[in-house]
Design brief:
- By secondary structure, the protein is an alpha/beta fold.
- The chain contains seven helices and ten strands.
- Strands 1, 2, 5, 6, 7, 8, 9 and 10 form an eight-stranded mixed β-sheet that branches. A two-stranded antiparallel sheet has the order 3-4.
- Helix 1 (24-33) packs antiparallel against helix 3 and helix 4 packs across helix 5 (135-142).
- It is globular, with a radius of gyration of 17 Å.
- It starts with 9 loop residues before the first strand and ends in a 6-residue tail after the last helix.
Length: 259
């Protein structure tokens, strides 16, 4: 698989998926081992966070160290009693300010595109080097899951998570060759129905499964309609949920050896 990417420019596309996105790090590890450097980075939600870190020159080990800090939820979760979301973004914004400082979208080592959704009109918004905004603002927009994290306002527009319009941003790739990593792909949901003793557990699993199926089918439509040369990797994330940050070691391992 990796021979296809050697000696040719390619776009690296990283999907959203909450904690499941930690599997992207396994792919980054293998890219580094094979000295494969993408010519462009495209990310949505958690994939956007990782893509942004890679874009400013961080290696996989450094990114993983930052992700490990997320395993302690108290370091980034601050519950809110007002507004439209259960989590206030203050702590998360401080983390991103420390990581990206005041770097703009064009101040990167690898060109970066981050996908968000305009929550007022539903339109997809792709932040690129042409936008005179800080990386941290684009990151806060792409990862703002409605109802969970605060929506983020940029230049008077209100944005939320990019998964609402394009969880795997293959449509935004500038290059003919694409390496796309989808942690909410076919291997992200069980091939059977929930069967727990408690009905509440079944209901929660059905909701999670339904969301994964919805996103999966959205992505399949984008893939079918693409004319690019796409190498698709779908880590087997089905055994983990989107907030399993404390299982970062196991989830990272899901991406190893797939390249």
């Amino acid at each position: 698989m990796s021979t296809i990417l050697k000696n040719t420019p390619f776009s690296l596309v990283l999907s959203g998926g909450g904690a499941l996105g930690i599997a992207h790090l396994g792919i980054l590890h293998d890219l580094e081992q094979q000295t494969l450097i993408p010519s462009e980075l495209i990310g949505t939600s958690m994939g956007g966070i990782i893509a942004a870190c890679l874009a400013i020159g961080m290696n996989e080990a450094a990114i993983y160290k930052e992700i490990q800090a997320f395993s302690s939820l108290t370091k980034w979760i601050k519950f809110s009693i007002s507004g439209n979301a259960i989590i206030n973004n203050d702590k998360i914004e401080n983390i991103f300010t420390k990581l990206f400082e005041e770097r703009k979208m064009h101040e990167v080592e690898i060109p970066l595109k981050l996908i968000a959704t305009n929550l007022l009109n539903g339109h997809k918004r792709v932040f690129t080097a042409e936008d005179d905004i800080c990386i941290k603002d684009a990151v806060l927009a792409t990862m703002a899951i409605p109802g969970v994290f605060d929506e983020h306002v940029i230049e008077g527009e209100t944005f939320g998570d990019g998964f609402l319009c394009e969880n795997l941003g293959v449509n935004e790739a500038s290059y003919e060759n694409i390496l796309a990593v989808d942690v909410l792909g076919e291997n992200s949901f069980e091939q059977n129905m929930p069967d727990n003793f408690f009905k509440t557990a079944n209901v929660m699993q059905m909701f999670e499964k339904s969301m994964r199926l919805l996103i999966y089918n959205q992505t399949q439509t984008h893939l079918r309609n693409s004319t690019k040369n796409i190498t698709l990797i779908e880590p087997a994330t089905k055994a983990f949920n989107t907030f399993s940050f404390h299982k970062h070691e196991e989830i990272r391992a899901l991406g190893l050896g797939l390249l």
